């Protein structure tokens, strides 16, 4: 009797220690060609999103650097009629703000409306340069979850196909593999979409700050030209 109890306990222990491991690589590879292609596409989109984010972040950070004394120096040069010195200062600064001011300085002597339009046109070009490839992040944030959902639908179709061809006997393992693969593509798509969405909004906020600096300095320059001599 005692021997039987020991044997049952050993059997129970062996059963409890047997664990089902879940390998992401196995889930991807068992999903068939369609599942692998979708995962590869999502991975490429993820790498592209990360690259665009850090490339734009560094570019925007560099563009936001403006010397606190820059506009004071511009005011002094313009007031003294030293336009060449003002242009040289703008070239040395080499930032979106300095390029706008340089455009305005080059138009001094013309009507204020012409100067204002020249600055606005230069500002549009600078904003376009700052927002380069940022729209791609927005596209990735919307497309990635849909691509992942496409993988889910394909996985479900494959599972239903296996059930339809099972001849009445459903293989739970085959069905589970299909569902695992379907959910894996969905999770992958959501991860890529969320990362791209957060990165996009962060870049938009950073870009808006640079645009605000450009507008503030442009208005300050125009106010300088409006001051009575």
UniProtKB/TrEMBL annotation:
Main location: membrane
InterPro entries linked to this entry: ExbB/TolQ_transport, MotA_ExbB_proton_chnl
UniProt GO BP: protein import
Transmembrane segments: 34-54, 134-158, 178-200
Record keywords, A-Z: Cell membrane, Membrane, Protein transport, Transmembrane, Transmembrane helix, Transport
Bilayer disposition of the protein: Multi-pass membrane protein
Entry keyword annotation includes Repeat: no
Domain MotA/TolQ/ExbB proton channel: 93-215
Pfam family, one: MotA_ExbB
Chain coiled-coil ranges: none
Localization: Cell membrane; Membrane
Cellular component terms per the entry's GO annotation: plasma membrane
Family statement: Belongs to the exbB/tolQ family.
Protein name, per record: Biopolymer transporter ExbB
């Amino acid at each position: 009797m005692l021997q039987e109890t020991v044997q049952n306990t050993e059997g129970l222990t062996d059963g409890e220690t047997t664990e089902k491991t879940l390998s992401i690589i196995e889930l991807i590879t068992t999903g068939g060609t369609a599942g692998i292609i979708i995962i590869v596409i999502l991975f490429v989109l993820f790498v592209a999103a990360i690259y665009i984010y850090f490339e734009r972040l560094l570019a925007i950070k560099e563009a936001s650097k403006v010397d606190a004394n820059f506009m004071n120096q511009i005011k002094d040069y313009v007031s003294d009629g030293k336009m060449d010195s003002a242009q040289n200062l703008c070239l040395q600064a080499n930032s979106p703000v300095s390029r706008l001011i340089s455009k305005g300085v080059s138009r001094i002597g013309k009507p204020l409306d012409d100067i204002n339009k020249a600055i606005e046109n230069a500002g549009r070009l600078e904003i376009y340069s700052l927002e380069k490839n940022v729209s791609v992040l927005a596209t990735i944030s919307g497309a990635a979850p849909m691509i992942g959902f496409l993988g889910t639908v394909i996985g479900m179709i494959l599972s239903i196909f296996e059930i339809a061809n099972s001849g009445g006997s459903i293989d739970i393992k085959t069905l589970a593999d299909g569902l695992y693969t379907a959910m894996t593509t969905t999770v992958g798509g959501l991860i890529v979409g969320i990362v791209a969405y957060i990165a996009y909004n962060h870049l938009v906020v950073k870009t808006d700050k640079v645009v605000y600096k450009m507008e503030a300095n442009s208005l300050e320059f125009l106010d300088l030209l409006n001051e009575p001599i």
